Amino acid sequence: MRVTFTVNGRQETADDVWEGESLLYVLRERVGLPGSKNACEQGECGSCTVYLDGLPVCACLVAAGQAEGREVRTVEGLAEGDRLDPVQEAFVECGAVQCGFCTPGLVVQAHDLIERIARPSDAEIREALAGNLCRCTGYEKIIDAVRLAAARREETR
Amino acid sequence: MEFLRPATWAEALEAKAALPEAAPIQGGTDMMVELNFDVHRPAALLDLNRVAELTRWTAEDDGRLRVGAGVPYARLITELGDRLPGLAQAARTVGSPQIRNRGTVGGNLGAASPAGDSHPPLLAGDAVIEVESAARGVRMIPAAEFYLGVKRSALRPDELIRAFWMSPASGPQYFSKVGTRNAMVIAVCSFAIALHPDDRRVGTGIGSAAPTPRRAVAAEEFLAAELDWDARLDPGVLGRFGELVSEAASPIDDVRGTAGYRRHAVGVMARRTLTWAWNEFRSGQHGRRAG
């Protein structure tokens, strides 16, 4: 089947999509956006987190056909040209990135958190990131990065 | 495989009647796992995302809430948490924020897993499931009659789940779940309680400790007879309630826990949740909060 949807502000069409195919597969393999990572394919790890109509979801658990006519924003759509999003910047500065595999999903989820809550508490950060697994960092630096991103974002608001 | 995209509820019913093997998909948080791992290859996917009415809830004339099968957990928590506190607590334990943005009570009901987190509060709160087929119209199925076996429900092949009906809480409600961590974990076992002070009755729901979610009927009958609603909670009554809930479970040993552990834990959760609910009721907090 054919699926047409908007990704990072651009209309995209994917052809010959298998009916059981996930949005994640379409993004990575057909649209050429490999930022969202494929790890568990069961919603356990959060590496494939993208915005779907403004809400963070696991792209591996959305059937491609369900994205028809909808708006998707991936980690590739957060930076403005060469200017990183404050969350991305904070991840780099705080050493919250090690192997980097979980980073795109964490960045999208953290981006959503500070959109909703300007200065999230540690408990709110931990709850928001509970669905994103990282096997390298031990999470502390990720939490530092979210705190920093929230503080910076508030300054510039 | 086909991908069916009905635009209206009537179209969805027609599609299900024409192709009963079609698997409904709403949030996809269960169905897509099976597809990704090639566990299940349905003849067709029946995508209900376009049927806008499924994502709405309304307060009906009889005082009950009618909640569309496609309202995601995240919205249950923010929009209905004050009126359906037990269900909202259970919803907060489902997966992660990403999963709660997509997953629905309708999907939980459709899968009818004994471990589904929404089932115990639906049972404790006397929810009624509204299902419909093109051929026979609407059927209203009390939650207590909905679960028939492991992943088997009263839903017929040509029927779709449209909504669930539930009264706003008339008393305190609590949900408790045992898992190996706080988030992203399937229940080892769970328990829900709902105090119905107007009828001097207590509703219960046991999860993940029997082939189906189930009520602890003998425990409910015991409380209806023995609970003094104008007094402090009697420790003897509390203890016996826990025992009766334990006895209502018929768990199995599996990778997540032993039958003996589950039987014990649901009894503990029953005592704890009744204590929490009773303390809230006696302190008058519930009335103040609802008012």
Automatic annotation (TrEMBL), chain A:
GO molecular function: 2 iron, 2 sulfur cluster binding; anaerobic carbon-monoxide dehydrogenase activity; metal ion binding
UniProt cross-references to InterPro entries, sorted A to Z: 2Fe-2S-bd, 2Fe-2S-bd_dom_sf, 2Fe-2S_ferredoxin-like_sf, 2Fe-2S_ferredoxin-type, 2Fe2S_fd_BS, Beta-grasp_dom_sf, Diverse_Oxidoreductases
Protein name (record): Carbon-monoxide dehydrogenase small subunit
Pfam families according to UniProt: Fer2 (PF00111), Fer2_2 (PF01799)
Domain (2Fe-2S ferredoxin-type): residue spans on this chain: 1-78
EC number: 1.2.7.4
Species in which this protein is naturally found: Streptosporangium album
UniProt keyword Nucleotide-binding present: no
TrEMBL record, chain B:
Domain of life: Bacteria
SMART domains linked to this entry: CO_deh_flav_C
Domain FAD-binding PCMH-type: 1-171
Statement: the UniProt record of this protein carries the keyword Transcription regulation: no
Region (Disordered): 98-118
PROSITE patterns (UniProt xref): FAD_PCMH
Pfam families: CO_deh_flav_C, FAD_binding_5
InterPro entries attached to this UniProt entry: CO_DH_flav_C, CO_DH_flav_C_dom_sf, Diverse_Substr_Oxidored, FAD-bd_PCMH, FAD-bd_PCMH-like_sf, FAD-bd_PCMH_sub1, FAD-bd_PCMH_sub2, Mopterin_DH_FAD-bd
Keyword terms of this UniProt record: FAD, Flavoprotein, Oxidoreductase
GO terms of molecular function: FAD binding; oxidoreductase activity
Protein name from the UniProt record: CO/xanthine dehydrogenase FAD-binding subunit
Biological source species: Streptosporangium album
